Amino acid sequence: MPAERLGRTVTEVQRDADVPLWEHPEWRDGFPWLVQGVTGVGAAAEPFDLALFGDGRTGEVMGRWQALGRATGAMRVVHGYQVHGAAVCFHSEETPGLHVSPDTDGHVSATPGVLLTVSVADCVPISLVDPELRAVALLHGGWRGIAAGILERGIRVLEERLSARPADLRVHLGPAICSECYEVGPEVYRGLGLPEPSRPERMDLRAHVAERALRAGVGEDGITVSKHCTRCGGSPFFSHRGGRSERQVAVLGLSP
Ligand SMILES: [Zn+2]
């Protein structure tokens, strides 16, 4: 029998805005000073693709990034050239515009008006919030980055730069591929330090991240997991394994 999954399940809801942004309803109600959520597919005729560096579509895509900035009130939007690594950048710069950090899969800030973003399309968007300090971290959690320790690194940057304590953190694991849709080879289990199966097996990446968060000192009550799978169940999100090349972004920041 599988172990009971860590973390409470929540279902993101689309907020009323110009962009298709799906929010954590408890965080929306409890932390009104927070900007948070994940963009979705949007209108079928004109998908809300935010893939930054793709395929000669830069002008069209940049218009959507600007719409996202306007809808969230962000002054400065930060993103990274994601490499499935564990590097986490600390952002306190307030200069307006879109900033892209080299080789970065995670971001930390406590500066109002700075909007952290990561691209996802099956990988886990990992959001960490310290409600007392009003400090946030947003991490791109594919299996390689998780194996490289991006969750632990993100928590450490919050501790070192902002004196956050793991026990005070709220952690949300957003829309990502579910275990029913995600069969992986033994190398993924090996990479994550889990017992290696002899053949391809299903993997619940969010359950693994939740266990790591607990080991890092986050309280079980502080962990929530999205009900959404990016691939199945009529998902309003792009799925790489589902054959989509577009990308949504997760966003997290403090209202200006
Ligand atoms: Zn699924």
Short description:
The chain is an alpha/beta fold and 256 residues long. The chain has six helices and 16 strands.
Commentary on this structure:
The protein has 256 residues and is an alpha/beta fold. The longest helix is centred in the N-terminal third of the chain and has 15 residues, at 58-72. It has a single domain, classed as CNF1/YfiH-like putative cysteine hydrolases. The protein is globular, with a radius of gyration of 17 Å. Strand 2 and strand 3 form a beta hairpin. The strands form 3 sheets. Strands 1-15-12-10-11-8-6 form a 7-stranded mixed β-sheet. Helices cover 22% and strands 28% of the residues. The mean pLDDT is 94. It contains 6 helices and 16 strands. The termini are far apart.
Bound molecules: zinc ion
Report on the biggest sheet.
7 strands, mixed
Total strands:
16
- From the alpha carbons, calculate the radius of gyration and give it in angstroms: 17 Å
Give me the CATH fold name: CNF1/YfiH-like putative cysteine hydrolases
Arrangement of strands in the largest sheet: 1-15-12-10-11-8-6
Structural class: alpha/beta
CATH architectural designation: 4-Layer Sandwich
Strand residues, percent: 25-35%
Task: Give the uncertain stretches in residue-range form.
Answer: none
How far apart the termini lie comes to 47 Å
How large is the count of helical segments? 6
- Helix percent reads 10-25%
User: Residue-averaged pLDDT, rounded?
Assistant: 94
Give the name of the CATH superfamily: CNF1/YfiH-like putative cysteine hydrolases
CATH classification class: Alpha Beta
SSE string:
EEEHEHEEEEEEEHHEEHEHEE
Shape: globular
Number of structural units classed as domains: 1
